[in-house]
Amino acid sequence: MNKEITKGQHHLLLSWLVFTGAVIFALLVAWNEGVLTLLYMGDKSRISWAITLLFIIVTFHVMRRVWVISSQINAARDVSEFIRKQDKLVIRVIGDNVDINGKSSLPPSYATQFIHDLVTRYNNHAVSSEDSVQGNSDLIEVYESRLKGPHEIGWFIADIMIKLGLMGTIIGFVLMLGSVVNIADFDVTTMQKILRNMSSGMGTALYTTMAGLVCSMLSTIQYHMLERNIDEMIENLKHLAQVYILPRLHQAES
């Protein structure tokens, strides 16, 4: 059975909420145990704050995209189920609307736009079955690009988080080495000061690296969740076009 049909309403949204709830719970535990305080107070470069800000921006972007994609998945499933139930399928394109059997129009969605363009292409060009399959693949890639295009900025920011963490590592090592430069006398007091400065530099190096890796991984998981669900929707649209729409268009023409 089609994967998309077996999932409930807003499956993507509910999955993301579960993931976000687990992250918030982990943050509360870290705050209660003093880990977050240690992280931000121990980072002298303040790069961890910048990484955290980027993660918050990414999370809000993902939240918006989750709602959009989840709504499109629900609409695509409804369109697919409606078309599958039709014993006789006559599709007509009237302006921007897609009319089914002269009785009802498909609701506005990416799935409806795809069917609209698929039928329009078929009606405007005399193509064979092989050409129609290739044309369907080319057309579905356009819609896949439209759905995944807004995520490019998210993948870019996730990569920037790692690079910021590595920059913090370098700054931490610089602070460590700077603590022993121009030191002539190594008495007990001087050694204590050097060790404190070296510890501070090492803390900066480790904390920024940890912040960059953790925030980047959490961001990547969210965008992977989005794109995996988009892939499933695209697969279902391909199946719908090849099995239920194109054969009936060829049949109606003959």
Question: What's this model, at a glance?
Answer:
By secondary structure, this protein is mainly α.
Tell me what you see in this structure.
With 254 residues, the chain is mostly helical. It has one domain (3-253). 79% of the residues lie in helices and 4% in strands. The protein has 8 helices and 3 strands, in the order H-H-H-H-E-E-E-H-H-H-H. A hairpin with a 2-residue loop joins strand 1 (91-94) and strand 2. Helix 4 (47-84) packs antiparallel against helix 7 (152-178) and helix 6 runs antiparallel to helix 8 (188-253). The longest helix is centred in the C-terminal third of the chain and has 66 residues, at 188-253. The protein starts with a helix and ends with a helix. Mean pLDDT is 83; it is low at 1-5.
**Count of alpha/pi helices:** 8
Q: How would a crystallographer describe the biggest sheet?
A: 3 strands, antiparallel
Structural class call reads: mainly alpha
How many individual domains? Answer: 1
Mean pLDDT: 83
Shape: elongated
Sequence stretches where pLDDT stays below 50 over 5 or more residues: 1-5
Spatial sequence of strands, sheet with the most strands: 1-2-3
Report the count of strand segments. Answer: 3
Order of helices and strands: HHHHEEEHHHH
Radius of gyration: 27 Å
Approximate helicity band: over 70%
N-to-C span: 30 Å
Strand content: under 5%
